[in-house]
TrEMBL record:
PANTHER family linked: TRANSCRIPTIONAL REGULATORY PROTEIN, TRANSCRIPTIONAL REGULATORY PROTEIN GLRR
Name the record gives this protein: Sigma 54-interacting transcriptional regulator
Recorded superkingdom: Bacteria
Pfam annotation, one family: AAA_lid_14
Keywords carried by this UniProt record: ATP-binding, DNA-binding, Nucleotide-binding, Phosphoprotein, Transcription, Transcription regulation
Domain Sigma-54 factor interaction: 142-371
Modified residues (4-aspartylphosphate): D56
CDD domains per record: AAA
Lineage: Bacteria, Pseudomonadati, Pseudomonadota, Acidithiobacillia, Acidithiobacillales
Coiled coil residues, start to end: none
Amino acid sequence: MRSTNGSILLVDDETDLLSLLSMRLRAAGYEVITATGGEEALALLRQHPVQLVITDLRMDGMDGLELFNAIHASLPALPVIMLTAHGSIPEAVSATRQGIFAFLTKPFDGRELLKQVEQAMQLGGVPQPANASQEDSWRADIIGRSAAMENLLALARLVADSDASVFLHGESGSGKEMLAQAIHKASLRRDKPFMAINCAAMPENLLESELFGYRKNAFTGATSDYPGLFQAAQGGTLLLDEIGDMPLALQAKLLRVLQERQVRPLGSTQTVDVDVRIISATHRDLAIEIQNGRFREDLYYRLHVVPLELPPLSARREDIPLLANHFLRLLADKNRKKVRGFSPEAMLLLSQAAWPGNVRQLYNTVEQLVVLSPSPIIAAPLVHQALRDRPTPILPLAEAKKAFERDYLVQLLQATHGNVAQAAQLARRNRTEFYKLLEKHQLDAALFKDTAE
């Protein structure tokens, strides 16, 4: 059973030190997994999500800095503590500049190590035992265990405690509003309002009044004062969804509000102070919008303080069975249907589909399947029917090759129920090469064992 204090990956080619450190950390209440080299550590990270890595600097083969660089490339929010018997000031300075959390020289003080571990766990968003369930509740509505989503949520948890503006970029239907709500729930503003508005869904004049409010008789039909969303979200969070579709004239007014932290309702000569945390979201490439004169560069930099990229569903296919089964339970209750699962063939079809509409499309498809299923188990022909008329987008060659390779690996893991040795044999690759491919596409073989159950 996993310790509530968090999980640590310990890497050292000195087995005696590895055992000593493991005993000390386990005695402090941490779960510890061990590796005797960098390659083994990377393979273990794909199967065992951890909140901290402690690694020796000097090791045979891949050294500690090379391991850190490999970890940082795919899991930039995962803290790393470096140990070395060859410590020097230049090495420590170089390592910490690269983003390593701490650098300790052997022989190190055990109390100092535990202090650094505790601080690193807090940095990584690991909840303390007393309020672990409460701390985890912020992400309860987000379904997924893929490396891509765990990394995204780790970054979201880090930024939540600040007041920095967050910029969410992702394809339509990938869950930007849900992530914004999760960030709000994890923040110190959680007890204040969360408000959201879709900037693409309203004409300019209506959008302006919705954001900034208006006074009675400011225009025809304004029969009473309306505070607007900035005032309604006072002390909380305001999500500006599809910010890339906001008209230019309104962008200038929004910039002024963000700079001055004041709004002036339409028809009023008085300004009102506002304290609101801004999260913006879009599926558009705002760099291109800026080049084409459709988005203000100064507003972009005001909003783009902490950017988070949401992966499309096609980049986290191992989450599809989790999502599909979760939606099925919800929608079966909603539609009063006694549907309780998918046949293996039906789930395989769902896992292999293109999903250009991402999680939203999967939700709608599962609802259609639940409503139309004549039996408790959804069969493959019904899934075929639901998917057959959906157009498949034409990708650039490089993206198509990458997508094919990932889908091929997913099929192998599904066919072997997550058995890496069997999958590597079918692919005619050795296990080391196969693990590197899984690492490249952020696939966790262990997750595919669940789909066979």
